[in-house]
Amino acid sequence: LALGIDGAAHSGALDAAAAPPIAVVGSGLDRIYPRAHAALWRQVCTAGVILSEYPLGAPAAAWQFPARNRLIATLADAVVVVESQHTGGAMGTAVEAARRDRVVLAVPGPVTSAGSDGTNQLLVDGCAPARDAADVLVALGREEVPRRRSTETRPSPSPSGALVLEQVPWQAAPIEQLLLATGLELGALALQLEELEADGWIAQRAGWVERVGRTDA
Known about the structure:
Distance between the termini: 33 Å
CATH architecture of the largest domain: 3-Layer(aba) Sandwich
Shape: globular
Strand order of the largest sheet: 3-4-5
Order of helices and strands: HEHEHEHEHEHHEHHEE
Structural class: alpha/beta
């Protein structure tokens, strides 16, 4: 339930409502951490389950989070590393998953980004790429989702929409990043994003935005 990708993953699981979410935390169950995710903590607890190997009252400590990674790896059918530096915590989870013969995938990232150093190294080491949900399903031997159609079938964005689209990355980014990049007010940006999403240029989920291709429907 940490800030960033962890929180976004749980928010996405709640939005999808396909299965009860499971969170493994590095503190006692009565010590919500981080406090900024108190509402998300309650939502996950209501819809699914929160697990901890630490006693009630145990505060969050840095060393406890790498330790809990082995539990995440054990519970998972597959571990998808979205973004990580070489020494990031997600890399530890990937190692623990590999030790348990779990499927490990990595989202390809820019070679110029330190945040993608770890994921790109995983790809070099032979992990499968996770470009979308279809890649994960294929790696698990499950039903494949239809691939995205060519961008030629999509209507061109408006001039203002094109300027916004230029700032939307292929990897999910928080909407706050786009507010800074575009200089638009929230209402104006939201309107442009709605139009781009309707035309199949982007996807939005739980305050995060990413550029996509339009799917066959």
